[in-house]
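Data card: per-record layout.
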Amino acid sequence: MPPTDYLSGQTIEPARVGGQTTIPELIDGAFGSYNAGRLREGCLLFTSRMLEDTVMVGLTMTGALTPTGLGVSTLIPLIEAGFIDWIVATGGNLYHDAHFGLGLPLHRGTPFVPDAELRDQEVIRIYDIFFDYRVLLDTDSFFSKIIRGGEFQRPMSTAEFHHLCGGYLSERERALGQGRRSLLAACHDFDVPIYTPSPGDSSIGLSIAAAALEGSRLALDPSADVNEMAALFLDTKRGGGASAVLVLGGGSPKNFILQIEPYLQEILGIEEGGHDFFLQITDTRPDTGSLSGAPPATRGGPEGVATSQHDGGGRAHSLPPPDQLPDAVTCYADATIAFPLLAAYALANREPRVPKRLYRRRAASLELLQAERERSAADEQVRERARHGRGHRVTLERDR
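The structure for this 400-residue chain is written out next.
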Protein backbone atom coordinates (compact mmCIF):
# COMPACT_ATOMS: atom_id res chain seq x y z
CA MET A 1 0.00 0.00 0.00
CA PRO A 2 1.54 3.38 -1.00
CA PRO A 3 2.27 5.64 2.00
CA THR A 4 -0.15 8.29 0.75
CA ASP A 5 -3.05 5.83 1.18
CA TYR A 6 -2.62 5.98 4.94
CA LEU A 7 -3.73 9.59 4.86
CA SER A 8 -6.95 8.89 2.98
CA GLY A 9 -9.02 8.52 6.14
CA GLN A 10 -11.40 11.19 7.35
CA THR A 11 -9.73 14.09 9.14
CA ILE A 12 -10.38 14.34 12.88
CA GLU A 13 -12.83 17.21 13.20
CA PRO A 14 -15.24 16.12 15.94
CA ALA A 15 -18.56 17.80 16.57
CA ARG A 16 -19.12 19.43 19.95
CA VAL A 17 -21.14 17.39 22.45
CA GLY A 18 -24.16 19.18 23.91
CA GLY A 19 -27.22 18.51 25.99
CA GLN A 20 -29.30 17.68 22.89
CA THR A 21 -26.73 15.32 21.32
CA THR A 22 -28.35 12.01 20.32
CA ILE A 23 -26.64 8.63 20.63
CA PRO A 24 -26.07 8.33 16.84
CA GLU A 25 -24.65 11.87 16.78
CA LEU A 26 -22.40 11.08 19.74
CA ILE A 27 -21.05 7.89 18.17
CA ASP A 28 -20.61 9.37 14.69
CA GLY A 29 -19.10 12.63 15.95
CA ALA A 30 -17.14 11.86 19.12
CA PHE A 31 -16.19 8.17 18.90
CA GLY A 32 -13.16 8.70 16.71
CA SER A 33 -10.26 6.56 17.87
CA TYR A 34 -9.11 3.66 20.03
CA ASN A 35 -11.96 1.40 21.10
CA ALA A 36 -14.45 4.23 20.68
CA GLY A 37 -13.42 4.16 17.02
CA ARG A 38 -13.87 0.41 16.88
CA LEU A 39 -17.34 0.75 18.42
CA ARG A 40 -18.23 3.37 15.80
CA GLU A 41 -17.01 1.00 13.07
CA GLY A 42 -19.02 -1.81 14.67
CA CYS A 43 -22.15 0.35 14.74
CA LEU A 44 -21.71 1.19 11.06
CA LEU A 45 -20.98 -2.43 10.13
CA PHE A 46 -24.00 -3.73 12.04
CA THR A 47 -26.40 -1.07 10.77
CA SER A 48 -25.32 -0.66 7.17
CA ARG A 49 -24.33 -4.23 6.22
CA MET A 50 -25.25 -6.87 8.79
CA LEU A 51 -28.89 -5.74 8.87
CA GLU A 52 -29.49 -6.08 5.14
CA ASP A 53 -32.62 -8.17 4.56
CA THR A 54 -30.69 -11.13 3.11
CA VAL A 55 -28.27 -11.39 6.05
CA MET A 56 -28.89 -13.89 8.85
CA VAL A 57 -27.67 -12.40 12.15
CA GLY A 58 -26.53 -14.73 14.91
CA LEU A 59 -25.75 -13.41 18.39
CA THR A 60 -23.59 -15.18 20.95
CA MET A 61 -23.60 -14.29 24.62
CA THR A 62 -21.49 -15.34 27.57
CA GLY A 63 -20.93 -13.97 31.05
CA ALA A 64 -23.72 -12.85 33.37
CA LEU A 65 -25.37 -10.36 31.01
CA THR A 66 -29.09 -11.01 31.48
CA PRO A 67 -29.05 -10.32 35.24
CA THR A 68 -27.98 -6.76 34.45
CA GLY A 69 -31.24 -6.26 32.56
CA LEU A 70 -29.73 -6.38 29.08
CA GLY A 71 -32.39 -8.86 28.01
CA VAL A 72 -35.22 -6.44 28.76
CA SER A 73 -33.45 -3.23 27.77
CA THR A 74 -31.53 -4.29 24.68
CA LEU A 75 -31.97 -7.85 23.42
CA ILE A 76 -35.77 -7.93 23.31
CA PRO A 77 -36.06 -4.63 21.34
CA LEU A 78 -33.56 -6.00 18.80
CA ILE A 79 -35.54 -9.23 18.44
CA GLU A 80 -38.81 -7.33 18.06
CA ALA A 81 -37.16 -5.26 15.30
CA GLY A 82 -36.05 -8.43 13.47
CA PHE A 83 -32.38 -7.60 14.04
CA ILE A 84 -31.42 -10.93 15.68
CA ASP A 85 -32.28 -14.19 13.93
CA TRP A 86 -30.69 -16.81 16.19
CA ILE A 87 -28.79 -16.93 19.48
CA VAL A 88 -26.10 -19.05 21.12
CA ALA A 89 -25.91 -18.41 24.86
CA THR A 90 -24.72 -19.96 28.08
CA GLY A 91 -27.36 -21.72 30.16
CA GLY A 92 -26.70 -19.32 33.02
CA ASN A 93 -27.80 -16.33 30.93
CA LEU A 94 -31.06 -18.09 30.11
CA TYR A 95 -31.64 -19.18 33.69
CA HIS A 96 -31.24 -15.65 35.05
CA ASP A 97 -33.36 -14.31 32.19
CA ALA A 98 -36.25 -16.40 33.50
CA HIS A 99 -36.31 -14.35 36.75
CA PHE A 100 -37.68 -11.39 34.78
CA GLY A 101 -40.35 -13.45 33.02
CA LEU A 102 -41.47 -14.89 36.34
CA GLY A 103 -41.79 -11.45 37.91
CA LEU A 104 -38.99 -12.11 40.43
CA PRO A 105 -37.15 -8.93 41.45
CA LEU A 106 -33.42 -8.27 41.09
CA HIS A 107 -31.98 -5.17 42.74
CA ARG A 108 -29.13 -2.75 42.15
CA GLY A 109 -26.60 -3.22 44.90
CA THR A 110 -22.95 -2.44 45.53
CA PRO A 111 -19.76 -4.48 45.09
CA PHE A 112 -18.47 -3.26 48.46
CA VAL A 113 -20.70 -5.19 50.88
CA PRO A 114 -18.94 -8.16 52.54
CA ASP A 115 -20.08 -11.57 51.28
CA ALA A 116 -20.54 -12.84 54.82
CA GLU A 117 -23.06 -10.10 55.56
CA LEU A 118 -25.06 -10.91 52.43
CA ARG A 119 -25.01 -14.61 53.24
CA ASP A 120 -26.39 -13.98 56.72
CA GLN A 121 -29.35 -12.17 55.13
CA GLU A 122 -29.78 -14.82 52.38
CA VAL A 123 -29.00 -12.29 49.67
CA ILE A 124 -27.43 -13.59 46.45
CA ARG A 125 -24.82 -11.39 44.77
CA ILE A 126 -23.71 -11.15 41.15
CA TYR A 127 -21.08 -8.44 41.68
CA ASP A 128 -23.37 -5.42 42.27
CA ILE A 129 -26.69 -7.19 41.56
CA PHE A 130 -28.58 -8.40 44.65
CA PHE A 131 -31.60 -10.69 44.93
CA ASP A 132 -33.29 -12.83 47.52
CA TYR A 133 -32.35 -16.50 47.76
CA ARG A 134 -36.01 -17.31 47.09
CA VAL A 135 -35.54 -16.06 43.53
CA LEU A 136 -33.31 -19.05 42.84
CA LEU A 137 -35.64 -21.48 44.56
CA ASP A 138 -38.71 -20.18 42.72
CA THR A 139 -36.92 -20.29 39.37
CA ASP A 140 -35.69 -23.83 40.04
CA SER A 141 -39.24 -24.81 40.96
CA PHE A 142 -40.57 -23.37 37.69
CA PHE A 143 -38.15 -25.33 35.50
CA SER A 144 -38.48 -28.51 37.58
CA LYS A 145 -42.24 -28.42 37.13
CA ILE A 146 -42.48 -27.69 33.40
CA ILE A 147 -39.81 -30.18 32.28
CA ARG A 148 -41.87 -33.00 33.75
CA GLY A 149 -44.60 -32.27 31.21
CA GLY A 150 -45.30 -34.75 28.45
CA GLU A 151 -43.95 -32.57 25.63
CA PHE A 152 -40.50 -32.65 27.25
CA GLN A 153 -40.28 -36.44 27.51
CA ARG A 154 -38.01 -37.08 24.54
CA PRO A 155 -34.56 -36.25 23.18
CA MET A 156 -34.41 -32.81 21.55
CA SER A 157 -32.10 -30.04 20.51
CA THR A 158 -31.55 -27.17 22.91
CA ALA A 159 -33.44 -24.95 20.45
CA GLU A 160 -36.53 -27.12 20.87
CA PHE A 161 -36.10 -27.15 24.63
CA HIS A 162 -35.74 -23.37 24.90
CA HIS A 163 -38.69 -22.84 22.56
CA LEU A 164 -40.90 -24.90 24.86
CA CYS A 165 -39.61 -23.09 27.96
CA GLY A 166 -40.15 -19.75 26.26
CA GLY A 167 -43.76 -20.64 25.60
CA TYR A 168 -44.38 -21.20 29.31
CA LEU A 169 -42.61 -17.96 30.21
CA SER A 170 -44.67 -16.09 27.62
CA GLU A 171 -47.84 -17.43 29.24
CA ARG A 172 -46.58 -16.42 32.69
CA GLU A 173 -45.84 -12.88 31.43
CA ARG A 174 -49.38 -12.54 30.13
CA ALA A 175 -50.82 -13.88 33.39
CA LEU A 176 -48.77 -11.35 35.37
CA GLY A 177 -49.74 -8.54 32.99
CA GLN A 178 -46.18 -7.24 32.99
CA GLY A 179 -45.43 -7.11 29.26
CA ARG A 180 -42.55 -8.86 27.52
CA ARG A 181 -39.58 -9.12 29.91
CA SER A 182 -38.04 -12.52 29.17
CA LEU A 183 -35.59 -13.14 26.34
CA LEU A 184 -36.72 -16.77 26.19
CA ALA A 185 -40.33 -15.65 25.81
CA ALA A 186 -39.47 -13.13 23.11
CA CYS A 187 -37.51 -15.75 21.17
CA HIS A 188 -40.50 -18.10 21.42
CA ASP A 189 -42.87 -15.43 20.12
CA PHE A 190 -40.60 -14.50 17.20
CA ASP A 191 -39.35 -18.05 16.47
CA VAL A 192 -35.72 -17.18 17.20
CA PRO A 193 -33.87 -20.43 17.98
CA ILE A 194 -31.57 -20.38 21.02
CA TYR A 195 -28.75 -22.92 21.35
CA THR A 196 -26.60 -23.71 24.38
CA PRO A 197 -23.25 -25.50 23.91
CA SER A 198 -23.05 -26.66 27.56
CA PRO A 199 -26.62 -27.14 28.82
CA GLY A 200 -25.44 -28.99 31.94
CA ASP A 201 -23.45 -25.96 33.07
CA SER A 202 -26.39 -24.06 34.56
CA SER A 203 -29.19 -24.44 37.08
CA ILE A 204 -31.53 -25.37 34.21
CA GLY A 205 -29.25 -28.31 33.45
CA LEU A 206 -29.22 -29.26 37.12
CA SER A 207 -33.03 -29.46 37.11
CA ILE A 208 -32.86 -31.70 34.04
CA ALA A 209 -30.31 -33.94 35.78
CA ALA A 210 -32.52 -34.22 38.86
CA ALA A 211 -35.51 -35.16 36.71
CA ALA A 212 -33.41 -37.88 35.03
CA LEU A 213 -32.99 -39.57 38.41
CA GLU A 214 -36.77 -39.84 38.55
CA GLY A 215 -37.05 -41.44 35.12
CA SER A 216 -37.48 -38.37 32.91
CA ARG A 217 -36.78 -39.10 29.24
CA LEU A 218 -35.73 -35.53 28.48
CA ALA A 219 -32.27 -35.50 26.89
CA LEU A 220 -30.64 -32.50 25.23
CA ASP A 221 -28.81 -33.62 22.09
CA PRO A 222 -25.65 -31.64 21.23
CA SER A 223 -25.36 -33.39 17.87
CA ALA A 224 -28.82 -32.12 16.96
CA ASP A 225 -27.64 -28.60 17.83
CA VAL A 226 -24.57 -28.86 15.61
CA ASN A 227 -26.59 -30.15 12.66
CA GLU A 228 -29.44 -27.66 13.07
CA MET A 229 -27.06 -24.72 13.22
CA ALA A 230 -25.07 -25.93 10.22
CA ALA A 231 -28.31 -26.56 8.32
CA LEU A 232 -29.70 -23.07 8.96
CA PHE A 233 -26.37 -21.55 7.92
CA LEU A 234 -26.15 -23.65 4.75
CA ASP A 235 -29.78 -22.97 3.82
CA THR A 236 -29.18 -19.23 4.10
CA LYS A 237 -26.02 -19.34 2.00
CA ARG A 238 -27.52 -21.60 -0.66
CA GLY A 239 -30.45 -19.20 -0.90
CA GLY A 240 -28.11 -16.36 -1.83
CA GLY A 241 -28.01 -14.84 1.65
CA ALA A 242 -25.13 -13.99 3.94
CA SER A 243 -24.30 -14.81 7.55
CA ALA A 244 -23.23 -12.37 10.25
CA VAL A 245 -22.21 -13.00 13.86
CA LEU A 246 -22.44 -10.54 16.74
CA VAL A 247 -20.31 -11.86 19.61
CA LEU A 248 -20.71 -10.57 23.18
CA GLY A 249 -17.77 -11.87 25.16
CA GLY A 250 -16.48 -15.18 23.86
CA GLY A 251 -16.29 -18.63 25.43
CA SER A 252 -18.05 -21.72 24.11
CA PRO A 253 -20.93 -19.78 22.48
CA LYS A 254 -18.43 -17.96 20.26
CA ASN A 255 -16.65 -21.17 19.32
CA PHE A 256 -19.96 -22.95 18.75
CA ILE A 257 -21.13 -20.53 16.09
CA LEU A 258 -17.71 -20.19 14.43
CA GLN A 259 -17.21 -23.95 14.08
CA ILE A 260 -19.99 -24.24 11.49
CA GLU A 261 -17.67 -23.66 8.51
CA PRO A 262 -15.04 -26.25 9.58
CA TYR A 263 -17.84 -28.72 10.30
CA LEU A 264 -19.26 -28.32 6.80
CA GLN A 265 -15.88 -28.24 5.04
CA GLU A 266 -13.69 -30.65 7.00
CA ILE A 267 -16.16 -33.14 8.46
CA LEU A 268 -19.05 -33.25 6.00
CA GLY A 269 -17.06 -32.37 2.87
CA ILE A 270 -19.57 -29.70 1.83
CA GLU A 271 -18.02 -26.77 0.01
CA GLU A 272 -19.08 -23.53 1.68
CA GLY A 273 -17.32 -20.49 3.10
CA GLY A 274 -17.58 -19.04 6.56
CA HIS A 275 -19.51 -16.18 8.07
CA ASP A 276 -19.49 -13.02 5.99
CA PHE A 277 -19.49 -10.45 8.80
CA PHE A 278 -17.99 -10.59 12.28
CA LEU A 279 -18.54 -8.10 15.11
CA GLN A 280 -17.24 -8.81 18.61
CA ILE A 281 -17.48 -6.83 21.84
CA THR A 282 -15.14 -8.25 24.47
CA ASP A 283 -13.01 -7.15 27.38
CA THR A 284 -10.64 -10.13 27.09
CA ARG A 285 -7.14 -9.54 25.77
CA PRO A 286 -5.98 -11.48 22.67
CA ASP A 287 -2.40 -12.07 23.85
CA THR A 288 -3.38 -14.81 26.34
CA GLY A 289 -4.20 -17.15 23.46
CA SER A 290 -7.86 -17.51 24.39
CA LEU A 291 -10.65 -17.55 21.85
CA SER A 292 -12.62 -15.02 23.87
CA GLY A 293 -10.33 -12.10 23.06
CA ALA A 294 -9.07 -13.20 19.67
CA PRO A 295 -10.17 -11.32 16.55
CA PRO A 296 -10.42 -13.40 13.36
CA ALA A 297 -7.02 -12.35 12.02
CA THR A 298 -5.02 -13.45 15.08
CA ARG A 299 -6.52 -16.76 16.13
CA GLY A 300 -4.61 -19.83 14.99
CA GLY A 301 -6.69 -22.31 13.01
CA PRO A 302 -9.97 -21.95 11.14
CA GLU A 303 -12.63 -19.96 12.91
CA GLY A 304 -15.18 -19.90 10.15
CA VAL A 305 -14.93 -16.26 9.08
CA ALA A 306 -14.65 -15.68 5.35
CA THR A 307 -14.95 -12.06 4.27
CA SER A 308 -13.48 -9.92 1.53
CA GLN A 309 -10.44 -9.42 3.74
CA HIS A 310 -10.30 -12.98 5.07
CA ASP A 311 -9.95 -16.47 3.66
CA GLY A 312 -11.86 -19.50 4.91
CA GLY A 313 -9.47 -19.82 7.83
CA GLY A 314 -9.89 -16.24 8.90
CA ARG A 315 -6.32 -15.15 8.22
CA ALA A 316 -6.02 -11.63 6.93
CA HIS A 317 -5.00 -11.12 3.32
CA SER A 318 -4.61 -7.36 3.56
CA LEU A 319 -5.89 -4.44 5.55
CA PRO A 320 -8.70 -2.34 4.06
CA PRO A 321 -7.93 1.29 3.29
CA PRO A 322 -8.45 3.63 6.27
CA ASP A 323 -11.64 5.07 4.77
CA GLN A 324 -13.22 1.69 3.99
CA LEU A 325 -15.49 -0.08 6.48
CA PRO A 326 -14.07 -3.52 7.38
CA ASP A 327 -16.13 -6.73 7.36
CA ALA A 328 -14.78 -7.79 10.76
CA VAL A 329 -14.59 -5.53 13.82
CA THR A 330 -13.44 -6.33 17.35
CA CYS A 331 -14.17 -3.72 20.01
CA TYR A 332 -12.41 -4.20 23.34
CA ALA A 333 -15.00 -2.83 25.73
CA ASP A 334 -17.43 -3.86 28.45
CA ALA A 335 -20.50 -5.29 26.68
CA THR A 336 -22.82 -3.78 29.30
CA ILE A 337 -21.66 -0.36 28.08
CA ALA A 338 -21.06 -0.90 24.37
CA PHE A 339 -23.95 -3.21 23.46
CA PRO A 340 -26.80 -0.85 24.46
CA LEU A 341 -25.07 1.93 22.49
CA LEU A 342 -24.83 -0.35 19.45
CA ALA A 343 -28.50 -1.31 19.77
CA ALA A 344 -29.68 2.29 20.18
CA TYR A 345 -27.62 3.33 17.15
CA ALA A 346 -29.12 0.56 15.01
CA LEU A 347 -32.71 1.12 16.14
CA ALA A 348 -32.38 4.83 15.39
CA ASN A 349 -30.87 4.36 11.95
CA ARG A 350 -32.50 1.23 10.56
CA GLU A 351 -36.11 0.31 9.87
CA PRO A 352 -37.30 -2.98 11.41
CA ARG A 353 -36.82 -6.13 9.34
CA VAL A 354 -39.36 -8.88 8.76
CA PRO A 355 -38.49 -11.64 11.29
CA LYS A 356 -36.85 -14.62 9.60
CA ARG A 357 -38.43 -17.08 12.08
CA LEU A 358 -35.61 -19.57 11.67
CA TYR A 359 -37.08 -21.92 14.26
CA ARG A 360 -39.76 -22.89 11.75
CA ARG A 361 -37.16 -23.56 9.04
CA ARG A 362 -35.14 -26.16 10.94
CA ALA A 363 -36.74 -29.26 9.39
CA ALA A 364 -36.47 -28.05 5.79
CA SER A 365 -32.91 -26.87 6.39
CA LEU A 366 -31.94 -30.26 7.81
CA GLU A 367 -33.27 -31.94 4.67
CA LEU A 368 -31.01 -29.71 2.59
CA LEU A 369 -28.02 -30.52 4.79
CA GLN A 370 -28.67 -34.25 4.54
CA ALA A 371 -29.03 -34.08 0.75
CA GLU A 372 -25.77 -32.18 0.37
CA ARG A 373 -24.01 -34.56 2.74
CA GLU A 374 -25.15 -37.56 0.69
CA ARG A 375 -24.09 -35.86 -2.53
CA SER A 376 -20.70 -35.03 -1.05
CA ALA A 377 -20.23 -38.60 0.14
CA ALA A 378 -21.13 -39.95 -3.32
CA ASP A 379 -18.68 -37.56 -4.98
CA GLU A 380 -15.96 -38.66 -2.57
CA GLN A 381 -16.60 -42.30 -3.46
CA VAL A 382 -16.20 -41.47 -7.15
CA ARG A 383 -12.95 -39.65 -6.43
CA GLU A 384 -11.71 -42.52 -4.28
CA ARG A 385 -12.44 -45.06 -7.04
CA ALA A 386 -10.61 -42.84 -9.51
CA ARG A 387 -7.61 -42.62 -7.19
CA HIS A 388 -7.69 -46.40 -6.67
CA GLY A 389 -7.92 -46.96 -10.42
CA ARG A 390 -4.91 -44.79 -11.09
CA GLY A 391 -2.95 -46.59 -8.40
CA HIS A 392 -3.90 -49.99 -9.88
CA ARG A 393 -2.72 -48.94 -13.34
CA VAL A 394 0.59 -47.73 -11.93
CA THR A 395 1.08 -51.11 -10.20
CA LEU A 396 0.43 -52.99 -13.45
CA GLU A 397 2.92 -50.83 -15.30
CA ARG A 398 5.56 -51.53 -12.66
CA ASP A 399 4.86 -55.28 -12.78
CA ARG A 400 5.45 -55.31 -16.50
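Known properties of this structure: The longest strand covers residues 55-61. The chain has one domain: 30-104+140-384.

See the next section for split statistics.
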